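Researcher: I need the complex structure. Ligand is zinc ion. Inputs:
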Amino acid sequence: MVYVNTNDMLIKARKENYVVGAFNIVNQTSMRAVVEAAKQEKSPVIVQTSQKTVIDLGYTVLVDMIKELSRDADVPVAMNLDHGTDMDVIKKCIEYGWSSVMIDGSKLSYEENIKITKEVVDMAHEREISVEGELGHIGGKEEHIETNKDEIMLTEPEKALEFQKKTGVDSLAVAIGTAHGLYTGEPKLDFDRLEEIMKICKFPIVIHGCSGLSRDIIKKIISYRVSKMNISTEIKHRYIDACEAYIKKNPDEYEPLKKFKFVQEDVEKLIKDYIKLFGSQGKA
Ligand SMILES: [Zn+2]
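Model: Output:
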């Protein structure tokens, strides 16, 4: 069983200059695609669950599933709660054995964000579970997280360091202009800001909203030594498109397991592409 602490993974990634992909799953098919892709590419990987997925599938099911799938994997696998905003869900994920949780207090005031993040850190660290916080407002829409254009607030580098010191958070999601969902045009990212953040903050930095960024932009982000990049929307699209493609190709097939397998393998291809792009291939 190589089900591990998320932050050890992220610290190693920064040191060795690659990114660990955090891929959002919605069920066993997509979770299997993520773990299989990591096994094949000999890469560390983070399986990510949104609050909605956790509530839909249940705590025991998700933990049993990840343990079962990673038991024979000779690669490190972690499971992270993405954008935790519900204290009850966060507490239960810590209790049931997620590798890490994210507390998203980015809609709160700076002081309130510190207070709630510290509360989660104290609770999680007692069980050696790591915590991702968020400072600044990442744009776009994903699951229950939605930020209007006028609410987007890029992360102040000095504040990021202060936030980490005051909360003890293990990693931090920062806003540099990426957005959740798919991009309609090329996003304008503030690389000077990212450079400053990386110079000041020596702990793992996380970038959200990486679905649909061009390969060049992703490579540029990686060169600043961020530790974790999140891919969600693109996986959902690939999943649904694969379902549709299978039904079109096999209109008379009524064996669901065959379709699940087809969808898994197709999503797997997408994950493998990202693992290669992130440079985590062979880093298990
Ligand atoms: Zn996000």
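Model: Summary of the prediction. The chain has one domain: 6-278.
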